[in-house]
Amino acid sequence: MEPLPNSRTEPDGSALVRVLSYNVRSLRDDTAALARVITACAPDLVLVQEAPRFFRWRKKLAKLAAASGLVILTGGATAAGPAVLCSLRATVERTEDVLLPLTPGLHRRGLATAVVRFAGARLGVVSCHLSLDKDERYEQGGMLLDRLAGMGVEHAIAGGDLNERPEGPAFARIAAGLRDCRTVAPWGAEYTWTPGDPHQRIDAIFATPGVEVLGCGVPVGHPGVRESDLRAATDHFPVLAALRVPAAR
Prior knowledge:
The protein is of the alpha+beta class. Helices cover 23% and strands 31% of the residues. It has helices at 31-41, 57-67, 134-149, 169-177, 181-184, 227-233; strands at residues 8-9, 15-23, 45-49, 71-75, 83-86, 91-99, 110-118, 121-129, 156-161, 179-180, 203-207, 212-217, 239-245. A hairpin with a 5-residue loop joins strand 1 (8-9) and strand 2 (15-23). Helix 1 (31-41) crosses helix 6 and helix 3 (134-149) runs parallel beside helix 4 (169-177). The longest helix is centred in the middle third of the chain and has 16 residues, at 134-149.
């Protein structure tokens, strides 16, 4: 497997950015293995799901970020679980944590959102974790698209744990408004759940049409990523994408 290209800024001001989407299961598993996987993937942005939400949650998330050479950008308990970590390469323009409508009897869901710049490139970012309920999940897919459309950016990405396969209605709804990066440029392995028996793709990264997708998939076989760490880190495999974001006009 050819490795994905490294992050860099192009002479025309466009930025090659690595994005990782990862359900970390509230850091209940092997956090050292988790940090090793993230570090080996060398991401500029990490779209986190199931970040810690309770006692000392900020300290726990900050410890993971520091162990991975990153910092907290936004999210966590304030977004009901989704979060975004970033490298120091990112310049933060603004952040907003969005709580989605609560359905009685179901978990509260939210979106961690930000607008960042990498040199001359400006990018909207959303991390999400959709509902286990089919109808609520479909509505949340529409809310995600509405949120991206209202961010006032030409180029944007969204990623997370959709709790649904690509043929499902919520996944398809998002893929109709954005591009499913794995479908555009397959790379690495496909299935994200469960590590003990990977047979479903329920985690994904999406991008607006102007973002060039250079490769996207589970980083099995990626340099520095050990399969033992992938299995020990959490109950999902991560999704890694390399994207070229055009310079802002």
